[in-house]
What we know:
The protein is mainly α and 342 residues long.
Amino acid sequence: xxxxxxxxxxxxxxxxxxxxxxxxxxxxxxxxxxxxxxxxxxxxxxxxxxxxxxxxxxxxxxxxxxxxxxxxxxxxxxxxxxxxxxxxxxxxxxxxxxxxxxxxxxxxxxxxxxxxxxxxxxxxxxxxxxxxxxxxxxxxxxxxxxxxxxxxxxxxxxxxxxxxxxxxxxxxxxxxxxxxxxxxxxxxxxxxxxxxxxxxxxxxxxxxxxxxxxxxxxxxxxxxxxxxxxxxxxxxxxxxxxxxxxxxxxxxxxxxxxxxxxxxxxxxxxxxxxxxxxxxxxxxxxxxxxxxxxxxxxxxxxxxxxxxxxxxxxxxxxxxxxxxxxxxxxxxxxxxxxxxxx
Length: 342
């Protein structure tokens, strides 16, 4: 059971992380984040947010799928092993204090800070099929900072590509504290080694590329997609030696297979001792046992959607209790607590 307030559980360092519900979770999310979260819930006070407001920064023109994606994401998280008795799982929009803190922080953040975030211009160039000139996209890091600071999180699991966002959050916390007094801790990066998880076409696995192996896909579909994956383009026949270093299937081996299999593939591919189908078959022997229990749990949970909604509601209650305490301190520090009594 979740430890009650006032117990030693509160001495644990607090962690905040989350995802935007813009599509199915895939195996890249599993090894890049979820497996780490599952470990952290045993040793830290963890808050995991399904960030539906963040989804609006790019999906504002068509919001019809976000509600379904929220529930699907909760199913994926629970099926992968997050335990609502050990961590707090909630939907961002169910805690309106996120929006209030975002508004207040937006008043003190210089626009130049936002324009220099590396991903701002990069994503505008990469996501050419959407108009990302809206304030929500520019102000995304401010809402992200509010998500973290509203829980006074001490640690944020990030990959190296996200360090700039967290540093901006730290700058925002410092600016607030210098203007109004110490309210927020400066969250530290909990850097994790995120293995490169390529998609079936060799590019980074991504929902938007259509190259993902999703956690909810049937095993048979996953098997077919793996067997069709691109490999070393120089290996045109079974007799041609290959180079695992440029083969996306080998990258998946490094994420899922044991050391013996990885070493075997590395040697035998280079001397054409095995073919690409052999290599993919070895991968499936390690990937399928990881995915099958997740899918079994997910199928069971999908039949208990009311229970999943109850978990999210309870998570929002816990999260809002913390957020309310933070906002009381924020309003007091800013001398903005002007609400009438009663």
